[in-house]
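Q: Give me the 3D complex with iron/sulfur cluster.
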Amino acid sequence: MKKLKSQIQKKLETKNLKDILLKNLESSVWEEIAKRCLSCGNCTMVCPTCFCMTVEDYTDLQKTKAERIQKWDSCFTLEYSYIHGGSVRVSIASRYRQWLTHKLASWHEQFGTSGCVGCGRCITWCPVGIDITEEATKIRKISQYQTTSMEEI
Ligand code: SF4
Ligand code: SF4
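A: Here is the predicted complex, encoded as structure tokens.
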């Protein structure tokens, strides 16, 4: 166990992270991530705690067969947030923000624990190298800077 622990290279400070993230929903960091994110959904497909799914209905023209299929989906698709009249998360920034804040913030409200088990799969399988630990840390740092600046005023 000790040996395994020593092999862990990444760390994420989780103290107050939920509040920090939820207070920074308008941070420029989301837009900066969106410039790199392909919205491919790889991270959601490999994450052990992702559960987004969709339901599709099929019928044949003879009205003899009807089928309902449940299949995996991803909050990174435009269609996933489609509500009557259109999608509510049209930008990649809003979709990445939804994903990260769900994992590290709103899961706490929903299930009483973090939505991230620290497996690192999303980091491994991101084609452009986006790292959830780095992005969350960036937001923490910006938040700390803003708090310090406000206190100094
Ligand atoms: S590191 Fe966290 S967010 Fe990424 S795949 Fe694992 S559980 Fe999901
Ligand atoms: S795997 Fe990377 S590029 Fe693909 S949606 Fe996730 S963060 Fe964006």
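A quick observation: Residues 46-49, 103, 116-122, 132 surround iron/sulfur cluster (ligand 1) (CB under 6 Å).
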